[in-house]
Amino acid sequence: MSRLVIVANRVPDPKETGAVAGGLAVALKDALAKRDALWFGWSGKTAAETGTTPQEAKVGQTAYARIDLGHDDYRHYYQGFSNAALWPVLHYRLGVARFDRLDWFAYQRVNAAFAAALLPLLRPDDTIWIHDFHLFLLAKELRALGCRQRIGFFLHVPFPPRAVFTGLPHAHDVLAAMDAIDAIGVQTEDDAENLRGALISHGHAGAALRVGAFPIGIDATGFANLAARIATQKEVTRLRDSLAGRSLAIGVDRLDYTKGLPQRIAGFGALLTRFPKHRGKITFLQVAPVSRGDVAQYRALRRELDESVGRINGQMAEPDWAPIRYITRAVARPTLAGFMRMARIGIVTPLRDGMNLVAKEFVAAQDPGDPGVLVLSRFAGAALELDGALLVNPLDPDDIAEALDVAMEMPADERLDRWTRMAATVRTNTAAIWCRRFLAALEGEEEVAEAGRTGGTRAKPPRTRKKPT
Question: What Gene3D superfamilies does the record tag this protein with (predicted)?
């Protein structure tokens, strides 16, 4: 079996065991455990200039190679084009996007620097798997340096309709770079159709044939076992005792404007206003670790949430009850699993999300004997798979409030029926299955990649490339 080369903007530090507890590392755990692998990308540190010689380390079968970003590249490539331009556009938010030509130059420069630093580390029979929007240009840069290995690309966030994406300056250049990729994966068939349409309209019909939907999953059994084990430990029992018999609703998100947090807070406030019977009977815990706190838009979002939470608590609280508990620091993943298990309601209402694994984790964490209810945005990719959720329009606080009322009143047999259907899906469409399906398409082992229970999608076999000599 060929070595798997994972390329991502950010690489976990192999010396920090906690660094691989979540995110991409969890999704790739199965693949990394079964074959030799190299994980290449940014160290998370900055320096005077972007590095050219990777810092290398090895843990088990996985080698790590990381480079630092120059201060200017961090500002223009990472904060600029990746997060101020691509991130909002890909989430359908053209009005929030900020464009600067210097950001585009840095994005090109860093993708080229990644290619130059990675190339000497490659073996002739490697399989290369690039992840996410920070590195749209990397495959093209590798090809320009003579790389002939198979290259796959997976986009973890949504891909918007062509009319939205082409509002991005240099959209044509981004799409043209995808011609260099052998297999292109996205989360949903809607994303796949949007990307195919954009590629075809810009003259890249060949690349459009190599786009497929591969919904990502979680290690459902592992997360369920973790939640059950943690449920009896100190931090979870402290929370349970503090609720004094009240129901718990929980939201877990990065502090980001795509997550619909102001509307969610407003929706919970509307629940207490429109359905006063629930006052004093439910507490909402929102965990929202600060993300990109040095960006003005995110600072403004935090102020807005601080004010909204304070206003609702000020108006509704009783001496022994605060409606909303709001945490902006990170909470350990095991603790969150225990919190989810005891929650009566999970609230996952992003304005737009590629998949949203928190929704699947909430389902996996539930007590099979007394499961809770998932309130889920219809604009999250997970909504296509989790048919037992209460789907809401995340832009409509009243819709959220009505769903929360239904969730609070839902009888046990209906909760169990809805959860059972979702749990079966989460256990079937795991992270390991996602990995195997995408790599099978990339490496030419399968002509058709099944996209899970949401219905299959066809991914054309990768182009055969002559092996380098």
Answer: Glycogen Phosphorylase B
